[in-house]
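thread: overnight batch results

M.L. [08:02]
morning all. the overnight job finished for the chain we discussed friday. pasting input first so we're all looking at the same thing
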Amino acid sequence: MKFLTLAPIDANYTFRAMLQTLSRPGTIEALALSDQSQCLPETALMLALIDVETKFAVLSSLEDIDAKIWARLLSSASGAPQAELPKAEWVLSFGEPSTDELNSLARGSANEPEAGCRLIVACDKLSQFASDTSDSRLHDSTRASTTIGLRGPGVNGQITLHVDGLSENFFATLAKINNSFPAGVDVWLCDQLGHLAAISRSTEFNVMQFQETIA
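M.L. [08:03]
and the structure it wrote out:
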């Protein structure tokens, strides 16, 4: 892919989906971009929000994804300036960011919560429950897979979210980062099928442990 485009109709739709998922943490929305747009779902999320006044950064823990190349593509498509991680307002991570990278994100403060970073993480698959899919990747012990229970504003009781491609360490680090609300980091997770879910900085969550029983 040599260039990125996001049609205005898709930009509006993506923006609404991001607001919807952030207001209802843990729920899953499906992005369906038109043929007018030429971009991956996770890059559509960035293009819907960043502009010439928005500082952003791109990370990658995947061998086949070059963060520098994608940062240049996003900057060219949007006009947004690239920034060092601590100064970035929006960050896109292909795969799981490291603990050091997560801890480098801007969190804002009680007086300036709007200064907190917004993070988009591309993962493998999102589902409401671990048993919602027959995808064999979920049974591969070499691949990270985590189920979390979410509570708080926008959540009716508790909701369960299964994330294939992110480890327990990611969520443990995020919980520590967001332990001083209203400061913190808002997170959107986007999978390979274009499914989207968010974890607001006000959301409480915990890793859920399941024991498999073999008859």
